[in-house]
Amino acid sequence: MLEVFWDSHSPTVQSSSRQYMSIVFYHDEQQRDLAVKSKEREEQKFGRTIVTEIIPFSEFYLAEDYHQKYYLNYEPDLLRELRAIYPDIHDFISSTAVARVNGYVGGFGTQETLEKELDSLGLSEAGRIRLLDIFQTVFLGHFWPPLLEKSAEDYVLISDE
Question: What is the count of structural domains for the chain?
Fold first, then answer.
């Protein structure tokens, strides 16, 4: 998990706001030691000081609603559909299906996994087709909407490749 953390941001750049600071929380001394060693390894790799703090965990706060499911905020049709399924914000935030859709919209996951779980995400036919379309465009690096034939269940991507 620490490798993903270090690879997911610029740990040598000081945040302009405490709200967005780079920080590792630990629960016990073993986690602390692992975090410190990984930080030292990253400093060697970058040849610069890492500004990430390593402190004991005390309490967890959910981000504000507008920060939740970041990628879905850029897909209003899918967002509207999922908010209709989960009208309570806490249910929306906690939903595994919403988290999965958000990840796919962000280009995470594999096409094989998306195809396997598409029908279990609770989306309408139009929502499933839109999600497939987004995933193909974002994840596979296509910069035009792919053309889909048939339905979301048995779609065929038409490509000139």
Answer: 2
